[in-house]
Amino acid sequence: MMKWERLLARGRFGDTPGFIATQAARSEFEVDYDRIIFSAPFRNLQDKTQVFPLPDQAFVHTRLTHSLEVSSVGRSLGKAAGAYLLDKYPNLQKTAISSSEIGSIVAAAALTHDIGNPPFGHAGEEAISDFFKFHPAGQVWESHVRPEQWMDLCNFEGNAQGFRMLVSKQFGLKLTYATLAAFTKYPRPSLISHRDVARRSQKKFGFFINQLTDFEQLSAFLGIEQSSEECWYRHPLAFLVEAADDICYSIIDLEDGCTMGLVDFDTTVKLLAPILKDKFVPEKLKNRSQAQNLGALRALAIGELIEETVEAFIKYEESMCKGNFDKALTDIIPSAKALQKITEISIQKIYRSKIVLEKEAAGFQVLEGLLSVFGQALYHQFYQTERFSGQDKSILRLLPEDFPLKGWGAEVNPYPLLRSLIDFISGMTDKYALNLYRRVKGISFPGV
């Protein structure tokens, strides 16, 4: 059974052996939060699609605003859960950790939950995966890498990319083990011999194969146990990070859909009313604007969902520590059916709306085009040298200055090279990716 005293330990990546964190004006977990806020990957979320491409006529959420809201909900969940844990486990109080610190762990992890997502949302993830699965310029790399590495390439996963970025020396974040564990909703690699479909934590994967040792280091420090030879149990706070995301995207995507006119206001009210229960007073909707009513209903709904989620966490906390509980908390709360109905309507009227589908189609073309151009140039330089052209040379000059362009060849496994290429492209904002695609394809010219 996992112990909270270890699960909430204050160590972090980059600590020297024997280092013991001490209390300061800011807790170790508040330091995590601040480092994330000021990081370049987090800032880039301001120009990454949440659901809708950025419209001119109405405010809708970007990945940045969504992440800030998820973090806010996560902090509330973590503080409430922390108060319960400190009351239940007297030994935990001896570590001098506070409920606010536990809230900071969840808030920091929630802040980063989308940091590995590529341009154009989930369509971007599929586009990167499809490039290696189906495009000739992607398929040529299969014979040069190991099976578990090829599985990573053919199944791009934003959660795993996020973990890679958070432990990367490139960004120097050096987060605490607890924050990274709370971030990791899917503590397993991409290639496993058997996936237990009953376990939510095995639905996707949470780290690429070359970050396996990083996760092993994290799990050993925190005492996170394995559910099998290839998979681990979740850190219990990861359930709260997941719930914060589920709550926000369910309620706020619906609000955005209503703002954009894809779901009418009356339907939106009917979907939210079962969550609000006796807090729903139709008379209060009179003599106020639609935007004011949406804001009030959203706040009430999120507040109710936070209360229900904390109650569910309290009920199953011991089972989480034993590794027996492995479901999404929002699937078992009293409002689960209401959330499911919102999801069904959102899929039908929002996620499959023309504006969203057009954005996804553009994303496939842009990311496939960029991967093809850069991937082919790299392949020609190192693995098919007789075809390395002047065009390839020009393309490779567009790569970042710190891109690893030395040491590759026919006898060298190019997996790290391809990971760096994916880092470059998946880290782009929507607009930068689109503009670079236009330039490398000759559709537009700089300064024209």
Automatic annotation (TrEMBL):
SUPFAM superfamilies: HD-domain/PDEase-like (SSF109604). Keywords: Hydrolase. The keyword Transcription does not apply. GO terms for molecular function: dGTPase activity. PROSITE patterns: HD (PS51831). InterPro entries: dGTP_triP_hydro_central_sf, dGTP_triphosphohydrolase_C, dGTPase, dGTPase-like, HD/PDEase_dom, HD_domain, PHydrolase_assoc_dom. Residues 63-250 form the HD domain. It comes from the Bacteria. The keyword 4Fe-4S does not apply. It holds the Pfam family HD_assoc. GO terms for biological process: dGTP catabolic process. NCBIfam families: dGTP_triPase. This is dGTPase. It comes from Algoriphagus faecimaris.
